[in-house]
Amino acid sequence: MSSTDPTASETTNTPEAPGTPTPAPKRIVYQVETTGSYWGDLKEAFKRISVRDDLSHINEIPCARNSLLSGIASGVGIGIIRGMSASVFVASNWAVGSFMLISLGTWTICQRNREEERRRVQQVVEAIPKRFVKPEGSSEQKSA
Questions:
Q1: Higher pLDDT, 105 or 144
Q2: pLDDT over 70 for what percent of the chain?
């Protein structure tokens, strides 16, 4: 619509009352749309990465805390043990590798457990109405 269109509705920015708290900005949720081009999709994916925002919201990612703590503890432990018998370079490689392996493993197990729990809850929710449904003939027999 152009500015000369009389049917166009103008939006006015009205300031909020003083002292009114402004709502926290919502985090943008992206829809998965692909361009069909591998490099174009990769470029769009890298545009969406924000290390500061991602790390500030890491506590909202399911299973992230437990898996990272397990990975860090195992990485430090294996790094120290391996450092007693090998060079620092070899020990650090073992530490980083064990951190990655343990973190990924515990995160995968936790996600699988969450999915199983979600399925069980869904089955219970679907079964609850069936428990309280009275058979059709039972109400007629009691009233007669």
A1: 105
A2: 72
Q: What is the pLDDT of residues 48-78, one digit of tens each?
A: 888 888 788 888 888 999 999 999 999 999 9
Are the beta carbons of 120 and 128 closer than 8 angstroms?
no
In one letter, which amino acid is 54?
D
Higher pLDDT among residues 42 and 135, named by residue? 42
CA 41 from chain centre, in angstroms, equals 21
Alpha carbon distance 110, 13 (integer Å): 47
Alpha-carbon distance of 104 to 79, in angstroms, equals 18
Q: How many CB atoms lie within 10 A of CB 91?
A: 18
